[in-house]
Amino acid sequence: MELWFSEFHTNNVKLSIRSDEQLYSGESDYQRLDVINTPEFGKMLVSDGDIVFSEADEFVYDEMVTHVPMAVHPHVKKVLIFGGGDGGVATCFAKYPEIEEIDLVEPDEMLVEVSKKYFPEQTEGLNDPRVHIYYQDGLHFLRTVQNEYDIIINDSNDPFGHEEGLFTKEFFGSCYKALKDDGIMIYQHGSPFYDEDEEACRSMHRKVYRIFPVSRVYQAHIATCPAGYWLFGFASKKYHPLNDFDPAKWKKKNIETWYYTTNLHVGAFMLPKYVEDLLEEEEGRTKQEIKNELEETK
Questions:
Q1: Pairwise pLDDT comparison (150 vs 158), residue with the higher score
Q2: CATH architecture of 58-244+266-293
Q3: Which of 204, 170, 214 is nearest to 278 (CA)?
Q4: What is the C-alpha to C-alpha distance for residues 273 and 289, in angstroms, rounded to an integer?
């Protein structure tokens, strides 16, 4: 008998993947976690029925949230990661010897333990002495931090459930305060291809564009994401992802990659017309809202 795992991307679209076996199933206070083995994507981690990552395409995500800001910021010493309990992003940052501290805030300890057991290569960086794991709520952690980090990564899955607080206006404002004067924040921007996901992308851009002086969006192809297409947000107090990008300096680091290149870095910010349009629309609305608020205070 064939076993198939299916994830609904919309009410009318689902991704189905044949599975050899289920390796793990358990439930924490935050989510149900499953690990399944598949012929096409290798082992996959599933949270509440949704794919978190697969062995076949996780490198795309990890590299794009790590190397893009690292190739722009000239002197990174301290990094903060939210929701990175699977270890992939921390492992990628651990490749940079100049980084002195990598703080990881993950409320679900079971996620970390399951990832260590079934994805040892991906979680290798969690054993690095520079990595410190804090098992607590992200917003609560941020309330005690100010002007401390060079880079902040929001590695949370979705703006729902126990991670909903990491996609709010309060969260992004707290990240702004926690960053140093030239800090960079990278966050998941979702996939705008399906109509039911578009508003989440618009809302995300409005919140960040209002807070950060530099707010840009870039893209990557990730096979198990909705429509195979995923967006990331780049927000900074100072640095522009293209104008301040230093490809020659990054190449000298000789970091091995499977997806990221300095040419791809530039291309990732060249977005399809429909994505450009929705982002520009929200920027226009935000500017008008700010203008109206200023006029009301006069």
A1: 150
A2: 3-Layer(aba) Sandwich (3.40)
A3: 204
A4: 24
